[in-house]
Amino acid sequence: MESLREKYAENTRRTLLGTGRQLFAEREYTGVSAEELVRTAGLTRGALYHHFDGKLGLFEAVFEDLERQATQRITAAITPVSDPRERADRAVDAFLDVCLDHAYRHIVLQQGPIALGWQRWRELDQRHLGGLVLDIVHTALEAGRIRPHPAELIARAFYGALTELSLAIAETDDPDRARAQAASLVHDLVDGLAIDADSPSA
User: Fewer CB under 10 Å: which end of the chain, C or N?
Assistant: First the structure.
């Protein structure tokens, strides 16, 4: 059975994560101090450093939680369907919907590169979303539904496009309009690679 100490530690960790998500979603990373984080959480600075090694570690943990939730949301959207083209379309729409979520947009897309640095930001983003893009590409290639380019290159091309479009959504004053435009563009890009299911070459 889980000990009282373990339960306390997990509760402390969850409290810090919840507080971090709240404050990092409200303001810029540089405008949130370690002191404010622990004061808002009702905990000590030692607890923050014990569980996350400071403000940056907490930010990264919040960032990864949001990325995991995004991956789960996309996976849930594509799991019920088997057609590779429909899976790709659903994955794109689900991802772009995630980009409309305020916490994801502000923490992952806007503050992530600033707090983590571009290289670490890209590493973490690819860890969660890159594999999902590659899996979708492999499925479509194996089914003969997209033109036979190297899977890694196709995945990188679409990952890069989606990354830039997600940043464009984060930077605009009209995220809903930008999301609709991005969806139209990505679906056209998919059309350019797609092979119709009824085609003799499919």
Answer: N
120 within a domain of the structure (yes/no): yes
> For the segment 81-126, what is each residue's pLDDT rounded down to a tens digit?
999 999 999 999 999 999 999 999 999 999 999 999 999 999 999 9
Q: What is the dihedral of CA 92, 95, 100, 101, to 10 degrees?
A: 160
**Could you tell me the residue range of the domain that residue 117 belongs to?**
56-193
pTM score, whole prediction: 0.90
Structural domain includes residue 63: yes
DSSP classification of residue 31: G
The radius of gyration of the chain from alpha carbons, rounded to an integer in Å, stands at 20
Per DSSP, 147 falls in state -
Q: How many domains does the chain have?
A: 1
Phi, psi of 176 (to 5 degrees): -65, -45
Residues counted in the chain: 202
Give the Cα separation of 131 and 123 in Å (integer). Answer: 12
Q: Give tens-digit pLDDT for 17-37.
A: 999 999 999 999 999 999 999
